């Protein structure tokens, strides 16, 4: 699987708003800062329109299926893990 990586492009401020779910914020951080993949390429690999993940930055959170599909396209998976006692 090959994504176009764009570390040479000028970075814009993250589109994620303050009210966005923490998992979605973490997802965009992963996409922008770790994997360096464009949202367009990622959405295409996941089988969605570019607008789908962009909507997650506003009022609309992702469906579980769409979120998992995008993570899988990056080579990640979503898991449920029991919290440690604190």
Report on this model:
The chain is mainly α. The longest helix is centred in the N-terminal third of the chain and has 14 residues. Helices cover 44% and strands 0% of the residues.
List strands and helices in order, with pairings.
Blueprint lengths: L21 H14 L3 H8 L4 H5 L8 H11 L12
Helix pairs in contact: 2-4
Which range best describes the helical content: under 10%, 10-25%, 25-40%, 40-55%, 55-70% or over 70%? 40-55%
Number of helices: 4
Number of strands: 0
* Strand/helix succession: HHHH
Beta-strand fraction estimate: under 5%
State Rg. 13 Å
So what's the overall shape? globular
Largest sheet entry: none
Low-confidence stretches: 8-13
| Distance between the amino and carboxyl termini | 40 Å
Mean of residue pLDDT?
Answer: 84
Q: What structural category arises from helix and sheet content? A: mainly alpha
Which characteristics define this entry?
single chain; mainly alpha; 4 helices
Summary, kept brief:
Helix content is 44%, strand content 0%. It is an all-alpha fold. α2 (39-46) crosses α4 (64-74).
